[in-house]
Backbone:
């Protein structure tokens, strides 16, 4: 048969929707299939299992010219840990699929695994299997991470209700700013400490595993998702799964001093970095009015930085954002393109 | 950091051993980690979970010039189903990671998934998740398949004991013969029906899921592995994990009439095709002397083709093969190179 020819492009979200329609599960033990941060399986009378897969491709998600194999491994593991964080799960077991181009040495593969395990070790994740192959193209890395929660106790994307407040952990936009500094160093004159902070946030993100477990244990959050595609894209995914709309206050979005300084020096709008910047791996979650005081109090006590950035609205009002001038406008559709860190 | 440069090659088996040493699990619920056909986790008081990952890379494991996207998807699923068959597990949940080059259309991706689901549907496997990305190189496909068995009831590579008989299901070498016909059609003059049979065995292999479950349920096999790297390589893996040696009778290896006819017409030794040919996805298993009559009787009743090909020996006697002339010689080390079907 003739090899495939160039034609219409493939869009991930469209593909996921099509697959869900075609091969929707009929297994009573599948609690969540395709579409959430991780699949959820009822594995025992006491436990739910959460399974997530992330794929990182050289030249698409990373570039070995600007990121070491160790950093690539570390960030790949963090992307998966972040998916489980968004479910409130405890990460347990890792499987790795790696296709290695001829130009990579055994030392580079060691470094890649070193990065993976550096990210996983604090969570006591066990590497239980995988597959390795040569690659005729670039480096490909696919990870499967399995985590657990108690039965019927997990954060899902679908639980947001009208009137719930929208919160995020940490600060947004740092990772994209760090990536921009790494790839276009000449165009910014922001101070070195800011640069170091932002590059570190890009190359060494922290999945909010402990925050996710706290929100899940206390049963305080009604829904959650991790910010891997950018706030603008991920709030859309959460609202779609919950069948609701949302209002976001632009002024409320938490932005680090370093990100503000970098945005100013590079003549960008810092909120734009926060809205469209992916791979921050912070959590976006919703809390009912009743639980907000307790959540804010507990977060302060535990040293978790959380910020209220908006509110869940009926689906018909759509996704809106309030500008600095107080005007409401539709949330722009700016999904983050993972590319070449 | 500078991108990796060419240097020492990566060998999969060396890599797996090194990883096992470095990141050996300490999780009490991990029954088997890296090294068996699938990882085994004690998921509940009643169940073990079996998790396997297989990676297929364009230009290494397949070539879209000779195999359709549908055949690639089908064979990828079979490789994973075969890993679970070797554990005696029931396949349940599938996750797919796919990196798609620009030249592939949405129709090709549909066909790929069509092949995956065609292989999985008879086993009622649910597609529960995955990840999709663009690829700057070729097509890259990594599957993770999860299966279940009862607790403490699974076929492992490590259970073979001295004196156990070695058996295989089906016939060996057909897949390699089919691959050779597909890639060098001009050099054989074997009859068309033989060619069709061998090509079908290559493009449409059958994982021995039901045979594996039977052997496991009846607790008749002491160890098992699937034949993905070729008999010569896989008997080595089984014996290594069981810390034993083995004697194989060359004359006993089951070879199909089509494979014999093809070998004759292409001036090859058919047993060589059987020893070195990978991707037959038959099962190699061991049975104690006590259970052999029952296993042979039940197999006949159920219509399973099984053939006794040798016996397990002490480790010190190594791996030997008896030639047609009756002489014992060391088993040649000819591992199958997965390439370009």
Residues:
């Amino acid at each position: 048969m003739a090899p495939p020819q160039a034609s219409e492009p493939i869009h991930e979200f469209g593909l996921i929707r099509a697959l869900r329609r075609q091969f929707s599960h009929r297994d009573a033990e599948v609690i969540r299939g395709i579409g959430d941060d991780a699949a959820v399986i009822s594995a025992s009378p006491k436990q739910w299992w959460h399974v997530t897969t992330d794929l990182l491709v050289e030249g698409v998600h990373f570039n070995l010219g600007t990121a070491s194999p160790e950093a690539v491994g570390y960030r790949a593991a963090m992307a998966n840990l972040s998916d489980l964080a968004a479910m409130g799960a405890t990460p347990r077991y890792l499987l790795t699929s790696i296709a290695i181009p001829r130009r990579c040495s055994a030392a580079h593969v060691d470094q890649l695994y070193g990065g993976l395990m550096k990210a996983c070790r604090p969570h006591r994740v066990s590497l239980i299997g995988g597959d390795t192959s040569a690659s005729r193209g670039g480096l490909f890395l696919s990870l499967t991470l399995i985590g657990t929660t108690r039965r019927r106790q997990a954060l899902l994307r679908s639980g947001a209700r009208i009137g719930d407040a929208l919160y995020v952990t940490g600060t947004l936009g740092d990772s994209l700013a760090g990536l921009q500094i790494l790839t276009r160093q000449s165009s910014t004159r922001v101070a070195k400490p800011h640069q170091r902070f932002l590059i570190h946030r890009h190359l060494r993100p922290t999945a909010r595993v402990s925050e996710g477990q706290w929100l899940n244990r206390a049963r305080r959050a009604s829904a959650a998702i991790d910010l891997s595609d950018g706030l603008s894209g991920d709030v859309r995914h959460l609202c779609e799964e919950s069948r609701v709309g949302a209002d976001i206050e632009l002024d409320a979005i938490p932005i680090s001093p370093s990100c503000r300084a970098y945005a100013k020096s590079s003549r960008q709008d810092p909120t734009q970095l926060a809205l469209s910047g992916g791979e921050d791996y912070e959590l976006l979650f919703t809390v009912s009015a009743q639980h907000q005081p307790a959540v804010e109090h507990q977060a302060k006590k535990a040293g978790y930085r959380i910020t209220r950035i908006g509110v869940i609205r009926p689906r018909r009002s759509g996704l809106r954002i309030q500008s600095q001038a107080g005007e409401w406008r539709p949330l722009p559709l700016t999904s983050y393109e993972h590319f070449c860190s």
Summary: The two ends of chain B are 37 Å apart (CA to CA). Chain B touches chain A through 86 residues (CB under 8 Å).
